[in-house]
Design a protein that fits this description.
The protein has 167 residues and is α/β, with parallel strands linked by helices. The protein is built from 4 helices and 6 strands. It has helices at residues 68-84, 98-104, 117-128, 145-155; strands spanning 7-11, 25-34, 41-49, 55-64, 91-95, 134-138. It is globular.
Amino acid sequence: MFRNVDCSFLVHFCSRWQPPAVGSLKINFHSAFSKSSGVGIGGLCSLVRNDRGELLDGLTTRMVAGFPFDAEVKAAKLVCSLGVDYKGVKIEFEGGSKLLTNLVVGKTLLGSKWTARSLMDEIKLSLGELRAGYSWTHCAKTGNMAASYFSSRLCENEFIEGMQWVG
């Protein structure tokens, strides 16, 4: 499925946002989770920026999530779909879940009955559509503060879902 596509995977710690390679786009994303209302709610924020750091697009949404990792996987599925919209451009995905990054790069959860496997399959199918290539990296919250902040606020109902990010 990934033949002739430039794919790279890195698991690293970044302490601040860094621009993508020239001619590429970076999609930073973060999800938050809260069960304060008795129902698991996930908040997602993703930001699309170019190599000059200019904000091109963004996405905020709330979702029902059974547990924190469920919110992360659903967030990843949405940002993969967002990445597919930028045909012909290499996309650098940067998210806060090291476990999710390991699953995207092909590592498995040993002995686990993971219920979100179908979502993971959909993520990998979406990534296969990115003909210009992609990379997927783990970045701690400190390097992804904007997305982290907005997803947390959205999760706690302190932020408006569906905000238009660019004019």
